[in-house]
Task: inverse folding
């Protein structure tokens, strides 16, 4: 009976996402479930989230990002090391400003401020909160508001005159590709379980990402990642986020949304200043660097780059490397802290 109820809830949320996608709403498969869960809660209807959701989402995102990383030709970019150093500095500025804002200005706890300050990577943050037992409501709202603002800004930057870019050509799925994908999943899951036993936070994202990079680098077969898995993962993240939105009274929800929007806008201004200076230093265009270092939403920024005629490969490379850092560093830091405390 629970399985049927869970399947019905996921199906309803997926249908809500498809409806928003039909209306051309960005990230519809995530925002659809959020809206549906909030509406259902008002009518005292609860939609059950499947067990193992975070593990599934970690493996899907880790594998897909790892496979994307191996398909970017790093040799085509000049001054790559300098650009990466400035990008890491930009990440540090974004994180520090956000942490101080949440800790000093808003009064969040240290753990909430740390997780709320991480610039992007919603799935990694959800997994880290689940591991640390941090109250997730305020952190989830903060990251959701950041995502919404970035998507809106990307839409403003692109404008309505730009045509929607055609989807990238993806080779057909082959039996060999499926077998290699199964190897990545099995190795990523087993190594993730091993790390989980020694209390490494969000281990499945790290292990599936590393396994995907290693396997695709060693084999000549183009490993195709099934797009429906990304759609299901996005739906489950939306359900997870929506379940925390309903826990706040309306006044507290609005207050947290306003403070989160303020810190996002401050970070965008700081990112623009850093990108402007880096543009003069390296010769890269200012819009390209701004889209590359915006605090989150690789999909929205890459779409904006394609529509504006900017090198989307460079923008995607920066966001992939940002995700590698964001997904890895917090897990390692928390693991070291736990070891020291013991």
Result:
């Amino acid at each position: 009976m629970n399985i049927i109820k869970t399947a019905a809830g996921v199906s309803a949320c997926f249908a809500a996402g498809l409806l928003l996608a039909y209306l051309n709403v960005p990230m519809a498969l995530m925002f659809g479930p959020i809206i549906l869960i909030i509406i259902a809660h008002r009518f005292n209807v609860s939609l059950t989230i499947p067990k193992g959701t975070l593990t599934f989402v970690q493996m899907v995102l880790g594998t897909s990002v790892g496979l994307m990383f191996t398909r970017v030709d790093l040799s085509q970019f000049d001054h790559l090391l300098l650009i990466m150093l400035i990008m890491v500095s930009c990440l540090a500025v974004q994180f520090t400003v956000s942490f101080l804002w949440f800790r000093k200005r808003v009064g969040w706890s240290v753990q909430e401020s740390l997780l709320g300050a991480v610039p992007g990577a919603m799935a990694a943050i959800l997994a880290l909160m689940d591991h640390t037992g941090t109250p997730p409501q305020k952190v989830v709202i903060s990251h959701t508001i950041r995502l919404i603002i970035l998507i809106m800004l990307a839409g403003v930057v692109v404008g309505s005159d730009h045509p929607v870019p055609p989807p990238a050509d993806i080779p057909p799925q082959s039996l060999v590709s499926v077998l290699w994908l199964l190897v990545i999943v099995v190795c990523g899951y087993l190594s993730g379980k091993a790390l989980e036993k020694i209390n490494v936070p969000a281990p499945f994202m790290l292990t599936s990402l590393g396994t995907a990079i290693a396997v695709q680098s060693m084999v000549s077969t183009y490993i195709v990642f099934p797009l429906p898995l990304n759609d299901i993962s996005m739906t489950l993240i939306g359900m997870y986020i929506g379940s925390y939105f309903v826990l706040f009274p309306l006044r507290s929800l609005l207050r947290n949304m306003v403070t989160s929007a303020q810190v996002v806008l401050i970070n965008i201004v700081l990112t623009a200043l850093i990108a402007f200076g880096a543009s003069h230093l390296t010769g890269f265009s200012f819009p390209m660097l701004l889209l590359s270092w915006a605090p989150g939403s690789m999909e929205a920024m890459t779409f904006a780059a394609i529509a504006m005629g900017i090198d989307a490969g460079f923008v995607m490379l920066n966001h992939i490397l940002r995700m590698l850092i964001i997904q890895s560093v917090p897990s390692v830091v928390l693991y070291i802290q736990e070891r020291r405390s013991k």
Observations:
- Residues 162-167 have pLDDT under 50 and may be disordered.
